């Protein structure tokens, strides 16, 4: 596509029509653009339109979005998609940096994103002049106080260097890092110094708008510093520690009322700068803790002062997390004595740990609105940092060198929390939750703790809470009590734990005899829980059903209602399978029930088929592809449980599904299909031998497709072996 007045008019009309309220006009425009995108120099033409000042700003903005999408899909395209030619790529790279600098902020954001995509593929080998060009434009923009452009350029550089955070140390990566440092370490330091001077001037003048842009720029500089030092601490930064550390400290200690007092957004922006500084300090400490010996003490005091204030605020999440992480890093370093004094330990336990471990309103909302996320984050040990988790990690870090001091202070706080709860349980239940959380979080992996007598605490505190008459009272406290039970169940005497079996099923060495008397009521309650609002796909309930079925004695009286209820859940799931974890546990539960019940009582097989086969057929007919692998495995299990001759339905599955090449194209289906094929060969050899030449030809066609795909060798052999073992030679002779 040549860029001229005609193409400019064509593209302008198309972009404008994509926003039309008239569906036909909109579809025509999208179709025309789709055709045009396959022509040479389309991306270059769109970029020039974006640069054309005579074109309406709205059209240029739409064009920038289109250009960004075009680059995302065409710079390194998937198979079958026409790529951008090398000459066109070169011209785009020559234009985009200067255009990004001159564009409006909305357009600039899309161009910056497109530039980052290009750079991820081409930088540095195919775009060696990118960093020098960015550095030159950065210096010019700073000199004329164009901080919209400064921040656009820094955002691009930040995106470029993020790759160093996600790569293993290797010779090619080290060469890229060395090139990046050679070309940008000095410009980065110059930029940080220049912006620092401007921040002080803007703060003194009380200019909120200018100060915001400058702080945003310094945040980006901190992130670039983090990326460039992620793999190894760069020599350039080691040689100039004062230049960095003094400025880092000033951002932790200086207040900027012109921005901070404008509202939550202003405080959040300044806190983001402080959090970025804390990230850098933690990282530097981890890489070269001796190098920063003269600075650590001052940073600890500055961070502690910030942390005490942030811990008391419900909104300063990011700063709180990164500040605690820095102190935790110090606690595990050679500088751990900085956190061992009586005064600082008192401040940490009383003003940092307790406020951050206490449940907040946000935690209650999360528990109520998204219990799965709460359990994953707060109770299952997710990698995601939370205030509660990070506060306890800080205690663990200090306890590594000062266990007795931490035990004494935390035990005192636990007793204080329990006393408050005893005074007024309804008003002070969060203090009880805090005590339980501290005990559980600070326990060893072997469920050992010096904070309380576990059995005594369990009998006097946990059991009364779990046996309370009102099961809906203080649900978060009950969740904490259950967490305590799961953590310490290995050291709680079994008779004590079994006394709760009427209320719970939570003992790790359960046997079928233990749960037998409670089994009917237990299963009724578990399936009933799946009927509650917002709990229809509760993965924890379904996992519990699966576990019970794995250990319980499955009689026909239990099996019949269970398969009915599980089929009901499965039929509901087919309409909209949203939760893959729930799907997995559901099919595991069904497969477990089928296997254990039918192996013991083969007469149940027809009844199970009556329940399950319509559901599996519905999955296949409605093309619910994410459930295909599970369905094929379940069909294989049902085929295995049949005695020859197998029912005609299964042979229809063989011809209509198993031997259709399309269903084998999805790699996730292949192991389950192979398993189903093996079951057919074992249980229905006579049926397969009838019309065997046609079926063999289809099977070999599938084999030929699989052989051409990487990583399928084992599955190919699993598919081929039963063919060789079961078919007569005269049937195979022409294919040998």
Automatic annotation (TrEMBL):
Species this chain originates from: Deinandra increscens subsp. villosa
CC per GO annotation: cytosol; nuclear envelope
Biological process, per Gene Ontology: protein export from nucleus; protein import into nucleus
The name this protein goes by in its record: Importin N-terminal domain-containing protein
Lineage: Eukaryota, Viridiplantae, Streptophyta, Embryophyta, Tracheophyta
Subcellular location: Cytoplasm; Nucleus
Keywords linked to the UniProt accession: Cytoplasm, Nucleus, Protein transport, Transport
InterPro entries: ARM-like (IPR011989), ARM-type_fold (IPR016024), Importin-beta_N (IPR001494), XPO2_C (IPR005043), XPO2_central (IPR013713)
GO terms of molecular function: nuclear export signal receptor activity; small GTPase binding
Residue ranges annotated for the Importin N-terminal domain, each copy included: 29-102
SMART domains the UniProt entry points to: IBN_N
Family to which the UniProt record says this protein belongs: Belongs to the XPO2/CSE1 family.
């Amino acid at each position: 596509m040549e860029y001229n007045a005609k193409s400019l008019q064509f593209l302008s009309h198309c972009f404008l029509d994509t926003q039309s309220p008239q569906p036909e006009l909109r579809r025509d425009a999208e179709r025309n653009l789709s055709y045009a995108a396959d022509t040479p120099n389309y991306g270059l033409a769109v970029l020039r339109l974006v640069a054309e000042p005579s074109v309406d700003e709205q059209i240029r903005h739409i064009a920038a979005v289109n250009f960004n999408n075009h680059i995302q899909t065409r710079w390194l395209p998937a198979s079958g998609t026409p790529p951008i030619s090398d000459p066109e790529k070169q011209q785009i790279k020559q234009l985009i940096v200067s255009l990004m600098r001159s564009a409006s902020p909305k357009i600039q954001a899309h161009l910056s994103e497109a530039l980052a995509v290009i750079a991820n593929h081409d930088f540095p080998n195919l775009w060696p002049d990118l960093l020098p060009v960015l550095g030159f434009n950065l210096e010019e923009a700073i000199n004329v106080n164009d901080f919209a452009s400064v921040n656009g350029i820094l955002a691009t550089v930040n995106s470029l260097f993020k790759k160093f955070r996600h790569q293993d140390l290797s010779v090619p990566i080290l060469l890229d890092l060395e090139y990046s440092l050679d070309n940008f370490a000095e410009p980065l330091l110059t930029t940080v110094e220049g912006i620092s001077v401007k921040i002080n001037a803007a703060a003194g003048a009380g200019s909120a708008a200018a100060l915001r842009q400058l702080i945003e720029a310094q945040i980006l500089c901190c992130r670039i510093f983090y990326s460039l030092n992620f793999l190894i601490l760069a020599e350039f930064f080691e040689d100039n520690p004062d230049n960095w550390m003094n400025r880092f400290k000033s951002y932790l200690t200086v207040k900027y009322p012109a921005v901070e007092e404008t509202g939550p957004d202003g405080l959040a922006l300044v806190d983001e700068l402080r959090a970025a500084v804390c990230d850098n300090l933690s990282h530097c400490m981890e890489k070269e803790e001796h190098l920063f010996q003269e600075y650590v003490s001052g940073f600890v005091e500055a961070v502690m002062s910030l942390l005490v204030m942030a811990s008391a605020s419900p909104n300063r999440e990011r700063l709180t997390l990164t500040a605690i992480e820095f102190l935790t890093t110090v606690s595990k370093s050679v500088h751990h004595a900085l956190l061992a004094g009586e005064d600082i330990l008192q401040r940490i336990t009383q003003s940092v740990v307790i406020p951050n471990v206490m449940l907040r309103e946000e935690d209650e909302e999360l528990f109520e609105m998204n219990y799965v996320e709460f359990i994953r984050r707060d109770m299952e040990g997710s990698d995601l940092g939370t205030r509660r988790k990070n506060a306890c990690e800080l205690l663990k870090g200090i306890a590594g060198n000062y266990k007795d001091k931490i035990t004494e202070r935390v035990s005192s706080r636990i007793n204080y929390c329990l006393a408050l709860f005893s005074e007024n349980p309804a008003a002070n239940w969060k203090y009880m939750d805090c005590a339980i959380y501290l005990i559980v979080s600070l326990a060893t992996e072997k469920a050992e703790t010096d904070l309380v007598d576990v059995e005594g605490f369990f009998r006097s505190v946990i059991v009364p809470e779990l046996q309370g008459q009102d099961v809906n009272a203080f649900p978060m406290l009950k969740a904490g009590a259950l967490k305590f039970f799961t953590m310490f169940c290995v050291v709680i005497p079994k008779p004590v734990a079994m006394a709760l079996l009427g209320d719970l099923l939570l003992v790790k060495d359960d046997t079928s005899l233990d749960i037998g008397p409670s089994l009917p009521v237990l299963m009724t309650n578990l399936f009933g829980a799946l009927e509650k609002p917002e709990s229809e796909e509760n993965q924890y309930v379904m996992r519990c059903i699966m576990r019970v079925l794995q250990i319980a004695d499955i009689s026909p009286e239990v099996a019949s209602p269970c398969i009915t209820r599980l089929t009901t859940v499965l039929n509901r799931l087919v309409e909209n399978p949203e939760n893959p974890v729930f799907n997995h546990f559901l099919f595991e539960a069904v497969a477990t029930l089928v296997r254990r019940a039918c192996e013991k009582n083969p007469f149940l097989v027809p009844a199970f088929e009556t329940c399950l086969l319509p559901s599996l057929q519905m999955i296949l007919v409605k093309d619910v592809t994410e459930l295909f692998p599970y369905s094929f495995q379940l069909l294989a299990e049902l085929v295995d449980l049949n005695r020859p001759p197998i029912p005609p339905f299964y042979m229809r599955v063989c011809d209509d599904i198993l031997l259709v090449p399309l269903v084998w194209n999805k790699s996730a289906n292949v192991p389950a299909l192979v398993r189903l094929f093996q079951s057919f060969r074992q249980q229905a050899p006579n049926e397969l031998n009838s019309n065997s030449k046609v079926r063999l030809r289809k099977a070999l066609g599938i084999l030929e497709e699989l052989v051409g795909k990487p990583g399928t060798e084992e599955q190919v052999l699993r598919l081929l072996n039963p063919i060789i073992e079961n078919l007569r030679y005269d049937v195979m002779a022409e294919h040998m």
